[in-house]
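Exam revision sheet. Question 4 asks you to relate a sequence to its structure. Input first:
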Amino acid sequence: MNDLLEQTPATKAKPSGAQKRYLERGLSEPGGKLPLFDRDGQRIKDATIKSCLSKGWCEPWYRNPIKPDWLVCKLTREGRAALGKDAG
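Answer key, structure tokens:
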């Protein structure tokens, strides 16, 4: 019966390669800030960011007044857990 315990989406789901690369960048940044651009200088796809938001792996940090359509996010405890890192 314990096998049927409901889990939250963040504990069931595993990040895709793109999601994992995005989320891992927050592990070494102050406050868990996530990048707008990848290591090659290409903008992170909105679909990647929005899918991480929907799973609770990241959350909006602040609005960029110069580029209000850009999602500036930070890593959450759930995001750290999805990466297999201590969520504490």
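Marking note for examiners. The chain has one domain: 13-82.
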